[in-house]
Design a protein that fits this description.
single chain; alpha/beta; 5-stranded parallel β-sheet; 7 strands
Length: 209
């Protein structure tokens, strides 16, 4: 792959099914490989790994993706390379202190080639963020760490595209885009329901049917 291509790091590695589907759409993964997901001897596991074609880094250990992306962005600056790094994190993942340390480093080095995208559905594995470790006021917090920070409806692809483009027009600091989303959107039983975080709940519902 080209050295100066943009990098996308899926820090919330449990969202890998979307990543694998996109890699198939881009003809990087074959349909046969895609259908092998989580089967014995498949290269596609429940978290993406770097040996999968098109996957930049092994992720899923939450709190690792942003520090890694900051390293990539610093490397690009030092080598005077033009690629940009985009990292997608979950909001529950922001409970990890490594993210905030990485944000300080990104601001220090004025990494205008870095975009942090936050999937802000207000739910993590054990319940609602506000009941576990509230992130609010999230936008103000991230701005205080030196980021050009915007918010968007994460389900509106048109607005999302515009915000991503505008983020990279900023020339003086790293950018963050808080995407307000609804967990399980489109599935009545799953929408905004923390109990749908684990597969066991899906199995229980299938048994009822």
């Amino acid at each position: 792959m080209k050295q100066n291509r943009d990098r996308i790091i899926l820090s919330k590695g449990h969202g890998c099914l979307v990543l694998y589907s996109i890699l198939h759409e881009r003809k990087i993964l074959s349909k046969k490989i895609l259908k092998s997901y989580c089967k014995s001897n498949s290269i596609l596991g429940g978290h993406p790994e770097h040996f999968v074609p098109g996957v930049e880094a092994s992720t899923g250990s939450l709190g690792h993706g942003l520090p890694l992306s900051v390293g990539l962005a610093i490397s690009a600056k030092l080598k005077r390379e033009k690629f940009r790094t985009i990292v997608i994190v979950g909001d529950g993942e922001l409970n990890e202190g490594s993210n905030w340390e990485a944000m300080m480093m990104a601001a220090k080095h004025k990494l205008n080639n870095l975009l942090l995208i936050i999937d802000y559905n207000k739910i993590q594995s054990y319940g609602f963020n506000k009941d576990i470790l509230d992130l609010e006021p999230l936008k103000d917090k991230i701005k205080s760490f030196g980021f050009f920070t915007q918010e968007v409806d994460g389900h509106d692809l048109g607005k999302l595209e515009k915000k991503i483009k505008s983020s990279f027009k900023n020339k003086s600091k790293p950018s963050a885009l808080i995407c307000h989303t609804i967990k399980g959107k489109g599935i009545k039983e799953a929408e905004n329901n923390p109990e749908w975080h684990y597969v066991k709940n899906l199995k229980q519902i299938l048994k009822k049917d």
